[in-house]
Design goal:
This protein has 2 domains: about 70 residues, 2-Layer Sandwich (GMP Synthetase, Chain A, domain 3); about 40 residues. The chain is built from 7 helices and 3 strands, in the order H-H-H-E-E-H-H-E-H-H. It is mainly alpha-helical. It has a 3-stranded mixed β-sheet. It starts with 6 loop residues before the first helix and ends with a helix.
C-alpha cells in the first residue's frame, strides 16, 4: 500500500480536477505563506483572493502594509522559489478573524444530485472519516465562494 497523501495536496488535486485553478493556487499560497513571507509577516497577513490577476493580501497593520508595499519584489521572488510562479500583489487592510465559522456540510447546501455524487466520488478514497468530512467541507466551501463571486459579478 502506498504512502497516505497529504490532505492539502489531495484538495489541490481535486480543485485542479474541477478546473478551479485559482482556488488551488490560493490554497497553495495559504499552505506555504509562512515560508514565503516569514513568521512575523505571516502572523499579520493573509492571502485573501485573486482580483484582476493580482493576489490580494490582507494586512492587519497599516505600518506593515506600507513596508510590504516596498518589499513586493522580494515577496514575489520568494513565491517564485516556493511555488514556481508569482502574481502582482495588492495589499489591503484586513483584520484577522479569531472566530471560526462552522463549515458547511453537504446536507446543508443546495447542491444538485450530480454535484453531491461528484464530491462523494472525489473523497471516497480518503479512509479516515474525519479527513473525508474535512475534505467534503473544503470542496463545498470553495464551491459556495465560487458561486457567490459569480453572483456578485453578474449583479455588477
Amino acid at each position: 500500500m502506498g504512502e497516505p497523501e497529504n490532505l492539502f495536496d489531495t484538495i489541490i488535486k481535486a480543485l485542479e480536477y474541477l478546473s478551479m485553478g485559482k482556488g488551488a493556487e490560493l490554497l497553495s499560497l495559504t499552505r506555504w505563506w509562512k515560508e514565503i513571507v516569514g513568521d512575523y509577516v505571516a502572523k499579520h497577513t493573509t492571502p485573501l483572493r485573486f482580483s484582476d490577476g493580482a493576489l490580494v493580501v490582507g494586512v492587519d497593520n497599516n505600518a506593515l502594509m506600507q513596508q510590504l508595499s516596498l518589499e513586493q519584489e522580494r515577496i514575489k521572488e520568494n513565491m517564485e522559489k516556493v511555488l514556481g510562479k508569482s502574481w502582482p500583489l495588492r495589499f489591503v487592510y484586513h483584520r484577522k478573524s479569531t472566530r471560526r465559522t462552522k463549515a458547511p456540510r453537504i446536507r446543508d447546501v443546495k447542491l444538485s444530485e450530480e454535484e453531491i455524487r461528484e464530491i462523494k466520488r472525489m473523497v471516497e478514497k480518503v479512509k479516515d472519516p474525519e479527513l473525508r468530512l474535512l475534505f467534503e467541507k473544503a470542496i463545498i466551501g470553495i464551491e459556495l465562494r465560487r458561486r457567490q463571486r459569480c453572483s456578485e459579478d453578474s449583479s455588477l
